[in-house]
Automatic annotation (TrEMBL):
Homotetramer. It comes from Inhella proteolytica. Residues 26-486 form the Aldehyde dehydrogenase domain. Pfam families: Aldedh. It is an enzyme of class 1 (oxidoreductase). Its EC number is 1.2.1.3. This is aldehyde dehydrogenase (NAD(+)).
Length: 508
């Protein structure tokens, strides 16, 4: 049987990654599937990060004057390369992040989709014309390239979230420097190799592409720090924990840089007494336990109407015990491993706290320990809670679902909003009044508020992100592209006089 490491190396070779990059370094890469070492990845130093920023900045000076639709052509080529290598990259995502096969494929599909979206945008980076109060004057707004974009990504979406940022940044005329999660360096190397294939194909067609359009530097906190503090990087887009955001945000603010933060979620799904329970059960099962609960959009709380609560819990429990846990690439697996021991320990600690705070815990124990002593599989957990206690307000990145009870919709919405995070939310109801109330100004306070759709698995076409401790950033679709550009207001006088605004007189 081929080992995980051999499988990973075959995939890396197919995608064109030089072997020395993952065999001759000091950063140990491991697969959560069996805990085995998959590589020794070359790590960068802070000085190398500074040099990379310099290179990306030099590339920016050239890239910003290339017409946006021509920049779009590079992103189109990248989308093509991703289509060709979709199964390779998806399998590597499964091996390195532990996602089941269809979710690995889904992640690469998100990359392809954002490339298509960005190609269209490359002809739509439009501003406004604005009525001037002065005769013979015209005002307008332009969106111009911003500079080097620093991208910090998390292990759970090791490549798609980078693509959301880089595809938009590249069509916007920016260049990118990427610091991936230390837990997923191999997928980052593969993505870089695929990007370089796209650049080579673009150049082969006669287009100009400066060196250093997009660079990746694996490494630890010092490398991240060098990226975050560098004034040549006007935008830092960081995805990860609220703890990370608390460190990154103030550092970027201190140098008046811009931050796009996509941090923790603690997403709730309200199940009304007027819900279609079949739909709700399916949505909750995927949202809470799919991806082994390791999405920032994972459904962590269900707030169920008292009339359906017990029935819902019973149905969820039936589904829960049937979920197949195991090797994410094996047929039929629905729940893969947790990323590492730390994640498993955090899950156990949260379950112990839930019990201490009056909860009834079903599941949550370690699974497949005999077969994989170095890997951390866990049975999904279903926890009924008497109230929204402290542990429920905390994001534990694991397949734990807390279930709470409500009587009146206002109470459910208050519970839904009563946590520090504000990423995704949903209501299951067939009552239009309830649905509209949930989406209204007095409803969910999250960046995403869905009706009869779960909290996770958002499409790339919408703006993605959330409020409060989630960090306030919006990535991906809608007008998120504007954050990767700088807004310039131009006033043009085509008259023969020079009237001042606000009627001011200054006769000389
Ligand atoms: C994340 O977990 O960081 O909506 C991103 C979703 C995915 C993206 C999740 N499209 O679940």
């Amino acid at each position: 049987m081929t080992t995980i490491s051999t499988q990973a190396h075959d995939l890396l070779a197919r995608m064109g990654v030089a072997k020395s990059l993952y065999t001759e370094g000091t950063l140990t890469a491991r697969s959560p599937v069996d805990g085995a070492v998959t590589g020794k990845v070359v790590e960068s130093t802070a000085a190398e990060m500074q040099a990379a920023i310099g290179k990306a900045h030099a590339a920016f000076l050239e890239w910003r004057v290339i017409p946006a639709p021509k920049r779009g052509e590079l992103v189109r080529k990248f989308g093509e390369v991703l289509r060709t290598h979709k199964t390779d990259l998806a399998a590597l995502v499964s091996l390195e992040a532990g996602k089941i096969a269809s979710e690995g494929l889904g992640e690469v599909q998100e990359m392809i989709d954002i490339c298509d979206f960005a190609v269209g945008l490359s002809r739509q980076l439009h501003g406004l014309t604005i009525a001037s109060e002065r005769p013979g004057h015209r005002m307008m707004e332009q969106w111009l390239p911003l500079g080097v974009v620093g991208i910090i990504s998390a292990f759970n979406f090791p490549v798609a979230v980078w693509a959301w940022n880089s595809a938009l940044a590249l069509v916007a005329g920016d260049t990118c420097v990427w610091k991936p999660s230390e837990k997923t360096p191999l997928t980052a190397l593969a993505t870089q190799a695929l990007f370089e294939k796209a650049v080579a194909a673009y150049k082969a067609d006669g287009h100009v592409a400066p060196e250093g359009l997009s660079l990746v530097l694996n490494g630890g906190a010092a490398v991240g720090e060098a990226l975050v503090t560098d004034t040549r990087v006007p935008l830092i887009s960081a995805t990860g924990s609220t703890r990370m955001g608390r460190i990154v945000g103030p550092k970027v603010a201190a140098r008046f840089g811009r931050c796009l933060l996509e941090l923790g979620g603690n997403n709730a799904l309200i199940v009304s007494d007027k819900a279609d329970l079949d739909l709700a059960v399916r949505a909750i099962a995927f949202g809470a336990w799919g991806t082994a609960g390791q999405r920032c959009t994972t459904t962590r709380r269900v707030i169920a109407h008292k009339a359906v609560h017990d029935q819902l819990v019973e149905r969820l429990e039936k589904v829960r015990v049937q979920l197949k846990i195991g090797n994410p690439l094996a047929d039929g697996t629905l729940v893969g491993p947790l990323v590492d021991k730390q994640a498993f320990d955090a899950m156990q600690a949260a379950l112990a706290q839930a019990k201490a705070q009056g909860g009834t815990v079903r599941g949550g124990e370690r699974a497949l320990a005999a077969e994989h002593p170095e890997a951390f599989y866990a049975a999904p957990a279903l926890v009924t809670m008497p109230a929204q206690t402290e542990v429920v307000c905390h994001e534990t990145f694991a397949p734990i679902l807390y279930v709470l009870k409500y009587e009146k919709l206002d109470e459910a919405i208050a519970l839904q909003n009563g946590v520090p995070q504000g990423l995704s939310s949903a209501i299951f109801t067939t009552d239009i009044r309830e649905a509209e109330a949930f989406m209204s100004a007095a409803g969910s306070d999250c960046g995403i508020a869905n009706v009869n759709i779960g909290t996770s698995g958002a499409e790339i076409g919408g703006a993605f992100g959330g409020e409060k401790e989630t960090g306030g950033g919006r990535e991906s679709g809608s007008d998120a592209w504007r954050q990767y550009m700088r807004r310039v207001t131009n006033t043009v006088n085509y008259s023969n006089s020079l009237p001042l605004a606000q009627g001011v007189k200054f006769d000389v």
